[in-house]
Amino acid sequence: MDGEIDTALADFERFASSLVHLEPRPLDAVRQGVEQFVAVVQRHLDGRATTDGQRSTAAEGAVTLTDRLGLEHERFRASLEGLRGLLAVVVGNDHGGHRQAPGQYGRVLAEALRSHRADGRAVALPRPSRTASRDPPARRASDN
């Protein structure tokens, strides 16, 4: 799934820029481009839904990177609805300015998602054990 969202993100960044630059594209292709991207991001969010409500054990008031990633999922859900709303405007009245709006919005959303993905990869990296470096080696009976 992670490769799918990264590929979709790169494709959507190009697609959104094409809307901003008013490159000719049939309305059905605009609709399909937005809906395909929304579907891939939605699958990513749904796949992470089981951990979004969980908080870390950080000190009270502190927000960890894992916490922030979960909060971003809530914002991305709202952003996808915003993108769909802009698409509905294009479908209702297709002209250049209306096509640019989902393109601009899409570019900002794609930038936020790219940052989110980088943070997600950082959280997934294995970390060295803190206790292993602080604890002295175990003493053997022959050391006495």
Detail the topology: elements first, then pairings.
Blueprint: H1 2-20, H2 27-47, H3 49-52, H4 65-92, H5 96-124, H6 130-134
Question: Oligomeric form of this entry?
Answer: single chain
Helix and strand pattern: HHHHHH
Number of strands: 0
Question: Could you tell me how far the N terminus lies from the C terminus, measured between alpha carbons in angstroms?
Answer: 55 Å
Q: For the residues shown, what is the average pLDDT? A: 82
The shape is: elongated
Low-pLDDT ranges:
50-58, 132-136
Biggest sheet record = none
Structure description:
With 144 residues, the chain is mostly helical. The protein has one domain. Helix content is 74%, strand content 0%. The protein is built from six helices and no strands. The N and C termini lie far apart (55 Å).
